[in-house]
Design brief:
With about 220 residues, the protein is mainly α. It contains twelve helices and three strands. Strands 1-2-3 form a three-stranded antiparallel β-sheet. Strand 2 and strand 3 form a beta hairpin. It is globular and about 45 Å long. The two termini are about 25 Å apart.
Length: about 220
C-alpha cells in the first residue's frame, strides 16, 4: 500500500491497478485488490480471460498477487490461473499459490514449473520454500548444482536472472536444510559489480522473511 502522505501523480490506471509518479523518475504501483478491496470471482475471470491480451492478463496477475488476504473463495481463482495461465502469469502469482488449501496440488504444480519452461525460476523457488515441504529439496538440488557449476565456469559473465535463480536456490536450501554452506555460496555476490545483484545477495543472505509467509492455510 502506498503511503497516503506521499505526494503522487497518477500516470496510469487500468481495471486492476494504478501507477503513480511519487518523485521525478520514481514510480509506485498500487493494486486495486489491496487499496480498494477489489474482488473477482472465477466466473467473472473465465468470461473475460480468453479475450484478454497478454498485457491485461499480466496486469491482472500482478495486481491480484498483491492481495493482502486469500480467503477460501480465492481457491477457485488460483486453480483457474494454474490451468489457464502461462509461464509469465504463473511466475507472477507463484507466491499466491501457497495460500491454497491443497498443498500437495500446489507442490506438484511448482515442481513442474521448476523442471520445465524458460522463464526465470526465482519466484517458483521462493514459493517452494514458503510452502516448506521437504519433498522439494531434491528438486532444488538440480538447479542449484547446475547453476553453481555455471557460475564457476562463467567467470563473472552471467546474466542477472541466472544469478538471481542461483541466489534463490541457495536461500531456499539454506532454509529447508538448515545448512550454513549455502549462505557461504551467497557471500561472494555481496561484492558483485552490479548493484542489483548485490541487493539480491543481501536479501538471500537474510533468508526468508515473515511477510513472505502471510497467512498460510493449515
Amino acid at each position: 500500500m502506498i503511503d497516503p502522505s506521499l505526494k503522487k501523480k497518477l500516470v496510469h490506471e487500468d481495471r486492476w491497478s494504478r501507477t503513480y509518479e511519487v518523485d521525478e523518475g520514481f514510480f509506485a504501483f498500487e493494486s486495486k485488490f489491496e487499496a480498494d478491496g477489489l474482488s473477482v470471482s472465477v466466473e467473472e475471470l473465465s468470461v473475460g480471460w480468453d479475450s484478454w491480451g497478454q498485457g491485461e492478463r499480466l496486469s491482472f496477475a500482478n495486481a491480484y498477487a498483491s492481495k493482502p488476504q486469500f480467503p477460501e473463495s480465492d481457491g477457485k481463482v488460483l486453480e483457474f490461473l494454474m490451468a489457464k495461465g502461462d509461464e509469465p502469469v504463473w511466475s507472477t502469482v507463484a507466491l499466491c499459490l501457497t495460500r491454497h488449501s491443497n498443498k500437495k496440488m500446489v507442490l506438484d504444480f511448482l515442481l513442474e514449473r521448476l523442471r520445465s519452461g524458460s522463464e526465470p525460476k526465482s519466484n517458483f523457488i521462493q514459493a517452494l520454500y514458503v510452502l516448506g515441504d521437504a519433498a522439494a529439496i531434491p528438486n532444488l538440488h538440480e538447479p542449484h548444482d547446475r547453476l553453481s557449476q555455471k557460475t564457476k565456469q562463467a567467470q563473472g559473465e552471467l546474466d542477472r536472472w541466472t544469478i538471481y535463480d542461483f541466489l534463490k536456490c541457495c536461500e531456499a536450501l539454506a532454509y529447508l536444510e538448515e545448512r550454513e554452506g549455502y549462505r557461504e555460496e551467497i557471500r561472494p555476490f555481496l561484492d558483485h559489480p552490479d548493484e542489483l545483484v548485490r541487493i539480491h545477495a543481501q536479501i538471500a543472505l537474510a533468508g526468508p522473511q515473515p511477510e513472505e509467509f502471510g497467512n498460510l492455510p493449515e
